[in-house]
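REVIEWER CHECKLIST
Item 1: Sequence provided? yes
Item 2: Single chain? yes
Item 3: Sequence as submitted:
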Amino acid sequence: MAGFITYDISRPDCTWSSANWVYTSFLDHVTELFSDDAAVQRLTSSKYNQSMSLSRLMDEDSELYDRIVKSFKSVCERIGNKECLASANGNVLDEESQVQFREAIDELSALLSSKTTPA
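Item 4: Structure as written out by the authors:
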């Protein structure tokens, strides 16, 4: 299984796709680090849907979209700095998996940066 975060699912250049364990580990970090934001919690707790349309969110609630993207970028940065590690079922994964995790998150970070303006 895979997880998707997309602006346009029909366009590969507008979609981030990752292994399920990468997607869920990323969203686990978002929910942990932004536990004080109820709206972010609601949106990211639906991680079992395995996909998130940021363009739809942008159209429906631009304020929430801005908060989600800001939280995603923050978590991407922390993962890149090795402050947040990939885990599954509460167990930190091996170094090879950490490298794969950071590479996948770098791709997500690039997508988010290409679709948003600096805050």
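Item 5: Key structural point noted by reviewer: The first strand starts at residue 2 and ends at 6.
Item 6: Recommendation: ____
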